[in-house]
Design a protein that fits this description.
Elements lengths: L1 E5 L3 H14 L4 E5 L2 H10 L4 E5 L7 H11 L4 E6 L3 H9 L4 E4 L4 H11 L1
Helix pairs in contact: 2-3
């Protein structure tokens, strides 16, 4: 079972990786810095869950979610973003599974991941 963590902020990505690996030692964790890199990884590796930030260069999290839904419809998707009302509409339109508003506690992310695994 694998998770793909997508965020262009390396310090946050490192922190989230550590938390995920501690909570789910049996899970393979892939990392990407933007949506384009994430799609390359998804093309080579079966992934059960994508956890992605929204604001990233090249391809943002919303665009990535739309592509993941088209190409890998059974892959679950958690988007990490600010808690703006229009983002809930985007989440619904892209058929996302969950949104985690910033700021959040690491435990909040772990609980969401547990729900989808």
């Amino acid at each position: 079972m694998a998770i793909l963590l997508v965020d262009d902020e390396i310090d946050l990505r490192d922190l989230l990786q550590m938390q995920i690996e501690i909570a789910f030692p049996e899970v393979t964790l892939h990392r990407a810095s933007d949506g384009r890199e994430a799609l390359e990884i998804l093309g080579k590796n079966p992934v059960r869950l994508v956890v992605s930030d929204v604001m990233m260069p090249n391809m943002d999290g919303w665009e990535l979610m739309v592509e993941v839904r088209k190409r890998y419809p059974s892959t679950k998707f958690i988007v990490i973003s600010g808690n703006h009302p229009h983002e809930h509409a985007k989440l619904a339109a892209a058929n996302g599974d969950a949104m985690l508003p910033k700021p959040f506690r690491g435990q909040d992310l772990i609980e969401l991941i547990r729900k989808f695994l």
